[in-house]
Amino acid sequence: MAGKTVLYIVKSVIDKKHAEAFNRWYHEKHIPELRELSGCSSARRFEVIDGEDKFTYMAVYEFESKEKFLKYQGSEGKKGLIADYRQNFGEIAELQFSSWEQIFP
Fold first, then answer.
1. Per-residue model confidence as pLDDT tens digits over 38-85
2. Which regions of 15-92 does DSSP assign to beta strands (E)?
3. How many angstroms separate the CA atoms of 7 and 59, rounded?
4. How many CA atoms lie within 13 A of 73 on its CB side?
5. SS3 of 71, please?
6. CA 92: distance to chain centroid?
7. Which residues contact 17 (CB under 8 A, 6 or more apart)?
8. In a 3-state reduction of DSSP, which class is residue 51?
9. Domains of the chain
10. Coil, strand or helix: which one is 4?
11. pTM of the predicted model, to two decimals?
């Protein structure tokens, strides 16, 4: 049986005065590096337009299987990406992580 799709969702909030630099870093550096290191099949980002969530941005990374996702989670590559985030935005942004395994269809 083929693995089920996993979505890795990262929500973030950052002060508006840092948002331009944050988004540039995310789009030009972080996402390309994450895609190369993780093996995820897609990466997308969203900005909130309505709702009660305090987070204003959401990144959605899709993995073909739980096994591929877990391999990335335990990798040195992920540790390096987290270190880079902390160095650049650790004091001024807040993140929330969640992982979702497809159950239907």
1. 999 999 999 999 999 999 999 999 999 999 999 999 999 999 999 999
2. 42-47, 57-63
3. 10
4. 15
5. helix
6. 17
7. none
8. coil
9. 6-101 (3.30.70.100)
10. coil
11. 0.92
